[in-house]
Design brief:
In chain A, 29% of the residues lie in helices and 29% in strands. With 221 residues, chain A is of the alpha/beta class. In chain A, the strands form 2 sheets. A 9-stranded mixed sheet of chain A has the order 5-6-4-3-7-1-8-11-10. Chain A has a two-stranded antiparallel sheet with strand order 2-9. In chain A, strand 5 (122-123) and strand 6 (129-133) form a beta hairpin. The longest helix of chain A is centred in the N-terminal third of the chain and has 14 residues, at 36-49. The two termini of chain A are 25 Å apart. The interface between A and B is medium-sized, with 31 and 31 residues.
């Protein structure tokens, strides 16, 4: 049986999934962290993601060492990882990640990168292989589905890539971890959403100490 | 002991508290409901507020008759009403309401209307009296606090008035009922928020069948 296509992101209460882009964009590049704009970007991004960093699963998956918090947030992070048989991501997310992931990238599955530039597959230790797909989001998803087998396909990000899949009617379900933070500016998750065609069905709401995890099934009208 | 200043609104998952304004704006005026744009506005607004209409408290408060749903949503609606000793609202919300509230308006307390036009107090049956305040949001709040006694002051709306109070550091706490709907366009609750000065502390999260009620305390930094 084929798996689902889903996304799962952290969102500020005012709807942002990333702070306002910094000129140049490569916030994780060596030396960049001295730039005050980059420092501000990273501080905001950390606020959004702060529920993840203390988790046992996060530490385990990035080989940061023993320990870390257990509980509902940790279970959700682990379940999201375990259901994922392949991921799809946009070029910009890949470019940022290429600078910040450790050699053993945290996916441990095939990752389909939607891009305009051809490139040979890039195999990393630990089971992550990046495949570069130049013929559009539907082909990238087809390849991800095939790679995932009966597990699910995660549209990993960034925001624009997620929205392309959502508007194309290719997303079955999604989760947002609503963080107790206001950004005021940045990349909005639902900017440009084709709202008139999308009906959301609430599936689950899991409030934890740090965030509220909201899960919806997506239907078309 | 003085009460708190709070607001409580329904918000779409993409951050809107009202659909895109209709030219003219008076969507509740008699005869207007034949206009397709107005019908669309009302349909979206109903989707956002749909958790409220079936409630026993809502029916009771507007004298729509017996019956209605009980449960957590109903308790929350009733608690929000009962804690409120006075409300503050903007001129546009008042203008819309003047056309749609029944003679016995649903506040049953003093309501301070922030406006530029002087007008005598307007007393309605059932305990609601509208007072028109022309010297700014702080004076309106002072009068509301005095009227509320030891109960709380609700900043009732609309979105722009709420944001003025939030940015002025005058809101202690707020609740959003996150509805499972995407608007794509309209009035954003947090448009223009002074995000760098606001810290949110999660107080409570109540998922119900229809919406997720999120409550935050507001601190300054």
């Amino acid at each position: 049986m084929a798996g689902k296509v889903f996304f799962s992101v952290s969102m500020s209460l005012d709807g942002f999934v990333a702070p306002e882009p910094v000129p140049g964009g490569d916030v994780f590049a060596p030396g960049k962290q001295d730039d005050p704009q980059v420092r501000r970007w990273l501080a905001q991004w950390m606020e959004l993601q702060q529920w993840i960093f203390p988790l046992r699963f996060f530490r385990e998956n990035l080989k940061l060492g023993e320990g870390g918090e257990e509980g509902r947030d940790n279970d959700i992070a682990r379940e999201t990882f375990e259901r994922t048989g392949a991921s799809v991501m946009g070029r910009r997310m890949f470019d940022l990640g290429e600078q910040s992931w450790p050699p053993e990238a945290p996916f441990h599955t095939p990752v389909l990168v939607v891009t305009h530039s051809k490139r040979d597959p890039w195999e990393r230790p630990g089971g992550t292989t990046f495949h570069f797909v130049t013929d559009g989001i539907e082909h990238a998803l087809d390849q991800a589905r095939e790679a995932a087998g009966d597990r699910d396909v995660r549209i990993a990000g960034g925001g624009e890539t997620i929205l392309q899949y959502l508007n194309a009617g290719l997303v079955d379900e999604f989760s947002v971890a609503v963080a107790p933070v206001l950004f005021g500016a940045g990349t909005r998750l639902f900017e440009g959403v084709d709202a008139s065609r999308i009906v959301l069905e609430p599936v689950r709401a899991d409030p934890t100490q740090r965030v509220t995890h909201l899960t919806y099934a997506v239907h078309r009208r």
